[in-house]
Design brief:
The complex is a heterodimer of chains A (about 325) and B (about 250). With about 325 residues, chain A is an all-alpha fold. Helices cover about 70% and strands about 0% of the residues of chain A. The longest helix of chain A has about 35 residues. By secondary structure, chain B is an alpha/beta fold. In chain B, the strands form 2 sheets. A 5-stranded mixed β-barrel of chain B has the order 5-6-7-9-8. The longest helix of chain B has 22 residues. Classes of the chains: A mainly alpha (about 325), B alpha/beta (about 250).
Chain lengths: ~325, ~250
């Protein structure tokens, strides 16, 4: 009973904390859907691939959204014709270099201000590399077919009948009802909340179950060597699923036990991926793309964390 | 197509309105303090209002073309937290959560060293030989005491918290512990002071107490053969207290 109460507390607190941001993300995504055309996006994207990746990577500085809100936005951008590499770079870097996250990192590591630079620098670099590689490794549409356009022949039939899927967003619309713009935005937001929310809740449940029933010692007992400690901290970041805006405070509590590199691993890997994000990604992208993406995120973050141990003057 | 009552739209409406009501309920009753740092509460208000607006919008969708027949399974995911919220109605984390969260205090002294807005130079206030510690300066004082356990030896301290005992502890030892929240209950960390009390078998787990004692220097083993000095409170007096309304320390 005590543990059920603890489980529910953690579970509900993740939902209470995450839902406002998911709704904000869904709203931004809906506004993009309604107001930003494919043509405009086509014009805005720089011709040079690396310039494009760099621009999207640092967009987080002016785009203060954390990881709960970013996936619907990234998904919408892909559907609007933004190349996969840029959308992924955007999705991975924004939760790390947004101003709120950098501030909280600064406060958490008051004694080591370099942590902010290392986190932002390595986070952006990793996001660019991962975005570039996933773009090279993926062909075709990376987005999962929605439940409504799986039966394509059938759907085509519908399309003519209802002017259905006119907007190509994969949602179920009833355009014949002639909604106002506000109605359209609310409708999209609501559907997006359902799509993302169900997976988010599942992830929050898994994460709270692990927090409640698996002693943290089991994870930390894997080791505190240079490499094993990085694995431990990345695993922790994955399991805990805490918001990137506060993860620095948690990372700090491990600072004395583990190497600086492993703390960096926690701080760059956590915002990119955790249990709840994995589920949301799995509901958004095709299975092959998700597996590749998880593998890339894991290996690039691991390599970056190892490298950060060699940054001169960077000790905790 | 004929317009008919749509069961999927209806379930979604019920989910939205219930979530909105749940957000309202815990904001209004103040239970939100069990889940969140006060700085995050404004976002919960945003969530409450956004869910309310979506629910109102959804109300007008109830009558719709009936071209979907199957009930969406995803709704179950939304009903689980609602069920837990209304029927389990959790009252925050208790001492049973400590074991699995790990108690970071013991791992090394300066756990709270960089606590937000705390400068290391800040001195501890000692009035009449007694260290002043409350919810506001808890982390700051704790940090100082862990760093310089030696300097404050012999001072009296009066501190509140819940009793935590672990199998690793020495026979007469327990921790008077608090949970620290930096954002929400998912990131709660446990901190506290090791106490020594001869009759500690009278204490039960999760009991809230106020202890008065004298600071001494104690040791805990971090790794094999490696010991770290920590402040140890030699307890003079223990009083049971009610669980406080604000049971967390917010940083």
């Amino acid at each position: 009973m005590y543990q059920l109460s603890n489980f529910s507390t953690v579970f509900l607190s993740i939902i209470l904390e995450g839902f406002p941001f998911i709704i904000i993300g869904a709203l931004v995504s809906s506004i993009i859907q309604v107001f930003v055309s494919e043509e405009l996006i086509g014009k805005l994207i720089p011709r040079n691939k690396f310039l494009g990746l760099l621009c999207t990577a640092i967009m987080g500085l002016v785009f203060p959204v954390c990881e709960c809100a970013i996936i619907p936005i990234a998904r919408r951008l892909i559907k609007k014709g933004v190349p996969l590499n840029m959308a992924v770079t955007f999705m991975l870097s924004v939760p790390i270099i947004n101003p709120v996250v950098l501030m909280s990192t600064y406060y958490a590591f008051l004694g080591q201000p370099m942590m902010v630079l290392v986190r932002a620098g390595l986070g952006v670099t990793s996001a660019i590399i991962i975005g570039f590689l996933i773009g090279e490794l993926t062909q075709g549409n990376p987005i999962k077919d929605g439940p409504h356009n799986t039966k394509s022949a059938d759907c085509h039939h519908h399309e003519q009948k209802h002017a259905y899927h006119q907007c190509g967003c994969g949602h179920h619309h009833h355009h014949q009802e002639r909604k106002s713009i506000i109605g359209e935005i609310l409708g999209h937001t609501s559907e997006e909340l359902y799509d993302i929310g169900k997976l988010f809740i599942m992830g929050a449940g898994l994460s709270s179950a692990m927090q409640t029933f698996i002693p943290r010692e089991y994870i930390t007992s894997i080791g505190n060597g240079t490499l094993s400690s990085i694995l431990v901290m990345m695993l922790l970041a994955f399991v805990l699923s805490i918001c990137s805006e506060t993860d620095a405070f948690i990372a700090r509590t491990f600072a004395n036990q583990f190497t600086a590199g492993s703390i960096v691993g926690f701080l760059i890997f956590g915002p990119m991926i955790d249990i709840k994000n994995t589920l949301v990604l799995a509901g958004t992208f095709k299975a092959k793309v998700v597996v590749k993406l998880l593998f890339l995120i894991f290996s690039i973050c691991f390599i970056m964390s190892v490298l950060s141990n060699f940054i001169p003057g960077f000790v905790l | 197509l004929r317009k008919r009552f749509n069961i999927n739209e209806f379930i979604w409406f019920v989910i939205l309105i219930s979530f909105s009501y749940y957000f309202y309920k815990i904001l209004y009753s103040g239970e939100i303090a069990n889940f969140m740092h006060p700085k995050m509460i404004k976002y919960v208000y945003v969530g409450f209002m956004a869910l309310g607006i979506l629910a109102i919008y959804q109300f007008f969708n109830l009558i719709k073309d009936h071209d979907e027949h199957e009930i969406k399974y995803g709704y179950i995911m939304f009903l689980i937290p609602l069920f837990l919220g209304f029927f389990v109605s959790p009252k925050g984390l208790n001492a049973y959560a400590v074991k699995n969260r790990g108690i970071s205090v013991f791992q090394k002294a300066n756990t709270a060293s960089a606590a937000k807005n705390v400068k290391n130079e800040d001195e501890i206030v000692v009035i009449g030989g007694e260290i002043v510690i409350d919810d506001k300066n808890y982390l700051q004082v704790m940090n100082k005491l862990y760093k310089e356990a030696n300097k404050y030896k012999g001072k009296r301290i009066k501190v509140k918290g819940f009793v935590y005992k672990d199998t690793d502890f020495e026979k007469d030892n327990f921790v008077v512990a608090r949970m620290v929240l930096s954002c929400c209950a998912a990131d709660a960390e446990v901190v506290g002071f090791m106490c020594e009390y001869k009759e500690d078998n009278k204490l039960s787990k999760d009991e809230w107490v106020q202890i008065t004692g004298i600071l001494a220097e104690g040791y805990i083993s971090v790794k094999k053969d490696e010991k770290v000095a920590i402040p140890l409170i030699k307890v003079e007096k223990i009083t049971s207290i009610e669980e406080p309304a604000n049971k967390y320390i917010y940083q």
